[in-house]
């Protein structure tokens, strides 16, 4: 009974609709997982993500590290014999997890993406210095990658002052129109 | 000949040498680049990771600006920006409902004939190899690069429509035209780990380590790329010390372009020793 309670029959339909992918075509050939650069670090491998969606295991899928460790390199989608674009599916699963307020298992990846997107919202373009400070404050991970960051700064590759485009209000309007929480 | 041009945020930051060498090469070729007025960030992987609609609308604003300028097809140097712009174009072209939604939010009308091209594609198929060869002053004799395409240029092929996703040849052809001898190797389109560099440096170090060591094993003296993020990852996360060039930098060397010192000073692994050894400094 408890096992059955975990099954969400609408999950497959929802994931298919949002991603535009026909997940019923998957016959578990494992090409996606074999070519995936980050699969060795995922808790659930890409082929199993598809199987678990078919089985309605919404909670397990949306709570997985896999959906966050996908870097959208598109190797899976390019090689899938049934033309399932798993990279696009992963994007859709992340959006669903965010909307359902499920904390990201790979918290820092989500925080970095948030910091990056907020940087665009502020000035229309990404400003690395303020984006990285924002990310460090969100993640409270102050020590990681200090050296590469300093190297880039010393090479003059991280400008101190941000650029604000003239149309930054236009960009803000686009952000408002694309907002998820309605 | 002129093109509309999308520099992308990193042209003024982490890949400044890509921008400098691109402008130098276009000057030599006598081809004009017209920067899109008041362009915005393409959104990058961060945006499509968390908000699909936004990841289509941000590039679409740039498409609308470039259409208005009527300065020719849009050329994009950064592979990541190119991929984002092509994703938006694909949605505008193939999905009527999505097209209406994007047009309403951004406030423009998409022209289906509008072209978006990767810088490498422009070099090979618009400007042409012959015109490139005419400008060569110093053939890259003795240089053995491993051509690294990464992900964003060639995948998903239905979106990027650039080259074969498993064994692309564009960059190899360009390098051969410049007089170099690109090596045959199997890691041309393996992923470098992209922005995981900032959160999971250990994973990126492993992926980059494999790519660079395989290039060395194939006999390469350096790698050549067209993506700012790949370049930074390959240069900063390897332990072998192979220089990582942008392809426009090697074109600049062959054209004997001015101010090359400025490009080399931006590299974490200086390519000057290698160039000197081959009398290409």
List the helices and strands and how they pair.
The complex is a heterodimer of chains A (182) and B (281).
Chain A: H1 2-5, H2 11-19, H3 31-35, H4 46-54, H5 58-62, H6 66-69, H7 75-79, H8 86-99, H9 107-123, H10 128-139, H11 146-154, H12 168-177
Helix pairs in contact in A: 2-8, 9-10, 9-12
Chain B: E1 2-5, H1 16-29, E2 32-35, H2 44-50, H3 52-69, E3 74-76, H4 79-94, H5 96-106, E4 116-118, H6 119-134, E5 145-147, H7 157-160, H8 170-177, H9 201-217, E6 222-225, H10 228-236, E7 244-246, H11 247-254, H12 260-264, H13 272-277
Parallel strand pairs in B: 1-2, 1-3, 3-4, 5-6, 6-7
Helix pairs in contact in B: 1-11, 2-3, 3-4, 3-5, 4-5, 6-8
Mean pLDDT of chain A: 94
Q: Which ranges of chain A are low-confidence, i.e. pLDDT below 50, for 5 or more consecutive residues?
A: none
Percent of residues in helices of chain A: 55-70%
Q: What distance separates the N and C termini of chain A?
A: 35 Å
**CATH topology name of the largest domain in chain B:** Rossmann fold
**Given the helix and strand composition of chain A, which structural class is it?**
mainly alpha
Q: What would you note in describing this structure?
A:
The complex is a heterodimer of chains A (182) and B (281). Chain A is mainly alpha-helical and 182 residues long. Chain A folds into 2 domains: 2-99, Fumarate Reductase Iron-sulfur Protein, Chain B, domain 2 (Orthogonal Bundle); 107-177, no CATH class. Chain A contains 12 helices and no strands. Chain A is globular and about 50 Å long. The two termini of chain A are 35 Å apart. Chain B is α/β, with parallel strands linked by helices and 281 residues long. Chain B folds into 2 domains: 2-118, Glutathione S-transferase Yfyf (Class Pi), Chain A, domain 2; 137-277, Rossmann fold, CATH 3.40.50. Chain B has helices at residues 16-29, 44-50, 52-69, 79-94, 96-106, 119-134, 157-160, 170-177, 201-217, 228-236, 247-254, 260-264, 272-277; strands spanning 2-5, 32-35, 74-76, 116-118, 145-147, 222-225, 244-246. Chain B is globular, with a radius of gyration of 18 Å. The two termini of chain B are 30 Å apart. The chains are: A mainly alpha (182), B alpha/beta (281). At the A-B interface, helix 7, helix 8, helix 9, helix 10 and helix 11 of A face helix 2, helix 3 and helix 9 of B.
């Amino acid at each position: 009974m408890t096992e059955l309670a975990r099954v969400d029959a609408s999950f497959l339909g929802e994931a298919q609709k949002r991603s535009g992918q026909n997940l019923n075509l998957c016959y578990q050939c494992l090409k996606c997982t074999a070519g995936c650069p980050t699969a060795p670090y995922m808790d659930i491998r890409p082929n199993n993500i598809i199987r678990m969606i078919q089985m309605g295991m919404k909670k397990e899928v949306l709570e997985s590290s896999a959906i966050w460790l996908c870097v959208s390199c598109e190797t899976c989608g390019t090689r899938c014999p049934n033309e399932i674009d798993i990279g696009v599916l992963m994007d859709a699963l992340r959006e669903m997890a965010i909307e359902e307020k499920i904390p990201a298992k790979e918290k820092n990846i989500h925080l970095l993406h948030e910091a990056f997107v907020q940087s665009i919202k502020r000035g229309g373009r990404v400003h690395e210095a303020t984006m990285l400070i924002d990310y460090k404050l969100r993640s409270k991970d102050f020590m990681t990658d200090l050296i590469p960051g300093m190297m880039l700064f010393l090479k003059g590759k991280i400008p101190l002052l941000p650029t604000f485009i003239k149309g930054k209000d236009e960009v803000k309007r686009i952000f408002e129109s694309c907002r998820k929480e309605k | 000949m002129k093109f509309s041009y999308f520099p992308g945020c990193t042209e003024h930051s982490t890949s400044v040498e890509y921008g400098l060498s691109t402008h130098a090469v276009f000057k030599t070729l006598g081809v004009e680049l017209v920067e899109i007025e008041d362009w915005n960030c393409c959104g990058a992987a961060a945006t499509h990771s968390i908000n699909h609609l936004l990841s289509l609308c941000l590039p679409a604003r740039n498409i609308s600006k470039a259409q208005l300028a009527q300065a020719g097809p849009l050329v994009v140097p950064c592979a990541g920006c190119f991929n984002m712009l092509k994703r938006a174009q694909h949605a505008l072209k193939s999905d009527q409902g999505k097209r209406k939604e994007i047009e309403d939010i951004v406030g423009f009308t998409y022209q289906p004939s509008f072209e978006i091209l990767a810088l490498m594609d422009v070099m090979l198929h618009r400007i042409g190899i012959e015109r490139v060869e005419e400008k060569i002053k110093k053939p890259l004799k003795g240089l053995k690069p491993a051509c690294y395409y990464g992900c964003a240029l060639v995948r998903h092929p239905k979106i990027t429509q650039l080259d074969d996703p498993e064994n692309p040849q564009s960059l190899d052809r360009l390098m051969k035209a410049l007089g170099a001898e690109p090596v045959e190797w199997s890691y041309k389109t393996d992923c470098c780990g992209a922005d995981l560099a900032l959160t999971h440096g250990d994973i990126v170090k492993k992926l980059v380590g494999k790519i660079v060591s395989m290039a060395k094993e194939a006999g390469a003296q350096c790698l050549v790329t067209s993506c700012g993020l790949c370049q930074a990852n390959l240069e900063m996360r390897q332990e072998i010390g192979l220089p990582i060039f942008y392809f426009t930098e090697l074109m600049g060397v062959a054209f004997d372009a001015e101010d090359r010192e400025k490009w080399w000073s931006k590299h974490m692994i200086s390519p000057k020793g290698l160039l000197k050894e081959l009398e290409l400094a």
